[in-house]
Design brief:
The complex is a heterodimer. Chain A is built from 13 helices and two strands. By secondary structure, chain A is mainly α. Chain A has one domain (40-326): Orthogonal Bundle (ABC transporter involved in vitamin B12 uptake, BtuC), CATH 1.10.3470. A two-stranded antiparallel sheet of chain A has the order 1-2. In chain A, strand 1 (171-172) and strand 2 (175-176) form a beta hairpin. The two termini of chain A are 14 Å apart. Chain B is an all-alpha fold. Chain B has a single domain, classed as ABC transporter involved in vitamin B12 uptake, BtuC (Orthogonal Bundle), CATH 1.10.3470. Helices cover 78% and strands 1% of the residues of chain B. Chain B has helices at 3-19, 22-36, 43-68, 76-96, 102-130, 135-154, 164-172, 180-198, 200-210, 212-217, 222-248, 259-269, 281-300, 305-333, and strands at residues 174-175, 178-179. Chain B has a two-stranded antiparallel sheet. In chain B, a hairpin with a 2-residue loop joins strand 1 and strand 2. In chain B, helix 3 packs parallel to helix 8 (180-198) and helix 4 (76-96) packs parallel to helix 6. Chain B is globular, with a radius of gyration of 21 Å. Classes of the chains: A mainly alpha, B mainly alpha. At the A-B interface, helix 5, helix 11 and helix 13 of A face helix 6, helix 12 and helix 14 of B.
Amino acid sequence: MSDQAQPSGIDLRAVGPHLLLPLAIVGVVVLFALLQPAMLSGDNIVNIMKQSSLFFFVACAQLVVIITRGFDLSVGANVSLVSVASSMVMTAVMPLYGTGLGIALGVGTGLLIGLVIGAVNGVLVAYGRINPFIVTLATMSIFTGVATTISGGFPIFNLPEAFSYAFNQMIILMLPIPLIIAGLVAYAMHFSLTRTVHGRVLYVLGDSNEVAHVAGRRVKEHLFLAYVTSGVLASIAGLLMTAQTGSGEPNLGTSLVLNSIAAAVIGGASLRGGSGGISAPIYGALLIVCLSIGMNLQQINGSLQPVVIGAILIFGAALDAIKTKAR
Amino acid sequence: MTAQAALSESRASKLMKTIGILPFVLVLTCVLLALYEPRFLRTSNLINVLRNASFLTIISAGQMLVIIVGGFDISVGAIVALTSVSSALSMVGLSSMGIESAGVIVALGCLMGLIPALMVGIANGFLVSVLKISPFMVTIGTMTIAAGIAGYVTGGTPIYDMPELFTREIGRGKVFGLPYIVYAAAIVLAVLWYMQNQTRLGRYFYAVGGNEKASRLSGLNTRKYIWLAYVLSALLAGIVGLFLTARVGSGEATLGSNLMLESISVAVIGGVALKGGVGRIQMVALSALFLAVLSNGMSLARIDSKYHIIIIGLVIVIAVAAESFRESRRSNHV
């Protein structure tokens, strides 16, 4: 690049990537608002906030492991299993010991399942040194099977209304409860990724496995912990999504695997590892949710919507590839 | 220990190293099944197993080629669906245009089915080899696009009314007692075995996957081979799509939805290393046969189909854990 162009070029380059996604999101919202004024109605905005908060959790679950140059294909199975199991616990405990304990035990079961799935993945990836793609492919298959087996393939109804209210419908200071939980988790994740040794180790791990080993940190523990975090985040998504649908669904998470990876990568995480902050799942979730809600309002054929998401996914990955090449 | 015993032991361990434990597990599974469930040995059942193994072998062969050059092909299942829809629509369209000869309709229909498959393969190859985008992202993207198009074109309803020549003859016909797909799989197996063992092309695939940089520096056009692997994978998936369409007798946008996972599982159980540069077609074919026997056995034993994916998932974990255990022992010895 010539010398004259450099001063303005640097500014644009430094600011450009940070502005690109917010601008794209605003652009999508404005576009659909022009086509369908309902896009900006109060109900729809609350809907966008809720949906993107739910989606944020799975994207974030994906981010934690993508940073370490891994994957988590089991997030969808995790969501499905958590949905089914927590619903079953709630409906079983409620008549005997009351609603409050039922909800508490259901939520506890859900989180515990997320923890266990994450721990299984983590043990196999970090201590067994097996490729994360294969590990999570296998656990995805196993836990999807468990979810359909224990539920018999049918949804579980009659969840307490208080559960749906507490985890989906409640609005505090004009903010829906999923958004508040997402905000708290986003802050905690941001803190742990940028301010703690654990976070630094994850980025170093993604950059270069050897460097992390040489640096003397107990790499395996941190890698294991990343998968556990991912599992717990996915289980939170499972609980919140169950509260939204009001029933335990054995295939609640089926479409989430690809979309969660898409959201994290579109948001700026790189599959080559070592990069991507908390903004990646936030922007990625907002973009995909705004797009799909907009396309629904515009009544675009349901089969064509994934075509748009797929094209954007490839476009985002191409941008990432070009950025990497430039580096 | 006497010298002879040591010698025979080292010979046994050498044998184990070259062929692995898969053949033994396969034989053991077959024997146990035959003892437990005599229906397993019926000719009709064995042909059924062989047919399923053939579908799996062909699609996993493509997956293997892509994994050998260091990639993935997640789009194979969607390619199967796209081929199915496109070939069925073309056949129905051609026969409504007044073409009489069933042979011409079927030939053109198959061609029209393979064209979109090849286009997906070419796009995958271009994006991965030239633009250097992660294969995972590329093929997830093309998968959603291809599946979306297939769903949009059919509107979710299957396409019937294909010529009898296609559905009855190719789908259900047999030559010397075996379905056509078995011969197709045998040809794929033979050609790929020849390519991997006897040709330069085969060596180049391994070289590119083993160390792309070194291959490029030593003058190989690595882009060309990576691209070619994706095109071949798509072509093989397209062929599976045609046979499956003929078998079920309709063009369906949901055909092959399990094949992406199954093809990767088959390749991995067959010892194809995800880091690239390793993988033999004969082991992949054995692994396809193993999975086909396993799921047949589970059906015969009336194990609920919901448990199938659990068991297959466990098999993958065990296979890969065994492989990584062997590898770590090997590197410890050296």
